[in-house]
Amino acid sequence: MPSSVMPTSIPSAITANGLRKSYGDKVVLDSIDLHIPAGSVFALLGPNGAGKTTAVKILSTLIAADGGQAQVAGHDIAGEAQGVRGAIGVTGQFSAVDGLITGEENMLLMADLHHLPRREGRRVTAELLERFDLVDAARKPASTYSGGMRRRLDIAMTLVGSPRIIFLDEPTTGLDPRSRHNMWQIIRELVSGGVTVFLTTQYLEEADELADRIAVLSDGKIAAEGSAEELKRLIPGGHIRLRFTDPATYQAAASSLRETTRDDDALTLQIPSDGSQRELRSLLDWLDSAGIEADELTVHTPDLDDVFFALTTRQPKETTR
Ligand SMILES: Nc1ncnc2c1ncn2[C@@H]1O[C@H](COP(=O)(O)OP(=O)(O)OP(=O)(O)O)[C@@H](O)[C@H]1O
After folding, report:
1. Which atom in ligand 1 lies closest to the alpha carbon of residue 200?
2. To test the ligand 1 pocket, which listed residue (19, 20, 26) has its Cβ within 8 A of the most ligand atoms?
């Protein structure tokens, strides 16, 4: 895997070896290893209840692991929790925003918690409210904010302490498409400023858009890890789909094309393909020479959805890893 051949000159922001956590009989994290280079975006992807939040809580020292070790920003999560906390910011499902006070007051409170001198606190607050487009709403109670504004305030509050590593636990869950794209832009800007982002998400598109590396968490284990492109290559699934309306044409095509998957009810044929121009051309040539005309032709290349479903669909017990 590329993580093992990572240039040693890139320092690791987060490393974990054999992290374990159970609640009662339920094993939530079953020996997790992570190596996240500084300045990169790492996405931990998994279905509901996979253990993503548990991983964030352990790495941000909110809860203790049952076993294994991890270093965050060079500090051991068990022995140097204060060092870890000083280097990180956490936002997400356990938001720090207080709805009863204004956005600005929330920011100033954060500045106090970080022991910033009053003037410096005001300067940082004004700068971040501006950067996150919250100036107009700054004097309104945070309870009146939309979901997107609240998330922006949450991240702005996290940045008061200038963290080098930020944990974003499902940062866009429940946001509308525009707010989601705004949030992605904010995350990209954080990374271009050198921050390392550890992101959890259920959205494949989000991981595809933002992450340098993606790990798919399933049944307490990392089922696969790599860039979006590497993960897509892991699974087959590319195909060309031909749809017919005339049953006789469909039958003629089905009986003469090899390696097809038939759907006799929908009158469609699926031909395995890597989606390349060469394969598409040879299929079209063949259809032409056989005098077969499909009513619709679509090319399907595997996407992260395919990877996700292939890796997280529960298998019968004896075939699981
Ligand atoms: N304090 C707790 N006590 C008992 N079980 C817990 C506790 N916290 C989490 N769990 C269980 O651990 C599992 C993983 O939970 P976790 O919140 O980490 O999942 P997740 O991947 O973040 O899910 P989601 O996408 O729904 O937030 C779930 O089955 C959950 O019910």
Report:
1. 22
2. 26
Over the stretch 284-314, which tens digit does the pLDDT of each residue have?
998 999 899 999 999 887 777 777 777 776 5
Name the residue of 20, 28, 218 whose CB sits within 8 Å of the most ligand 1 atoms, as the mutation to test its pocket.
28
What pLDDT, in 10s, does the model give residues 155-211?
899 999 899 999 999 888 888 888 889 889 989 998 998 999 999 998 888 998 999
Atom number of ligand 1 nearest to Cα 51: 18
The pLDDT value recorded for residue 3 is 43
Asked whether the beta carbons of 307 and 235 are under 8 A apart, the reply is: yes
∠ CA 276-280-286, nearest 5°, is 150
48 touches ligand 1 (CB under 6 Å): yes
174 lines ligand 1 (CB under 6 A): no
> Which is the closest atom of ligand 1 to the Cα of 50?
21
Per-domain residue ranges for the chain?
A: 2-233, 239-301
Topology annotation, domain 2-233: Rossmann fold (3.40.50)
Rounded distance from Cα 54 to ligand 1 centre (Å): 6
Is domain 239-301 classified as CATH 3.30.70? yes
Q: What's the complex ipTM?
A: 0.95
pLDDT at 148 (0 to 100)? 85
pTM flag (> 0.90): no
Identical fold for domains 2-233 and 239-301, yes or no, is no
